[in-house]
C-alpha cells in the first residue's frame, strides 16, 4: 500500500484529505506543521506528500526544501494544496521541488486527477 503524508495546520482539511486518500488506497499519516512532518520523514519517507503552504512553526515550502535534502528525499511526490494562488507562488513551489499544485478547496476528483498526473495512482482510478 502506498503512503501519503498530509501536512496542514487545519484538522478539518487533514480529516477530509485522509478520507479521500484512504478511498484511493493510501495509508495516511498526518502532521500539523512542517517541523512535525520533517520528523516523520526522517524516520520514513512517504510515497506522497499533500502539503499546505501557510503553517506555523515551519511552512510547507521550507519543509519541502529540508525533505528534498534527506537521503531519498527526491523520491516522494509533493503536491501542494493551498490557498496561495498567484503565479509567483506556483512557480516557486514547482521550481523548489513540488510535482503538482492544487488550489483549496479541493475534492476527491481533483486529488485523484493530480495524483494520477504524477504517477501515484492509475489514470481513471475511482474511489472504493
From TrEMBL:
Arranged from A to Z, the UniProt key words for this protein are: Phosphoprotein, Transcription, Transcription regulation
Highest taxon, organism lineage: Bacteria
Keyword Cell membrane in annotation: no
Q: Which residues form the Response regulatory domain?
A: 3-119
- Which Pfam families does this one have? Response_reg
Q: Which GO terms describe its biological process?
A: phosphorelay signal transduction system
PTM-bearing positions, type 4-aspartylphosphate? 52
Q: What is this protein called?
A: Chemotaxis protein CheY
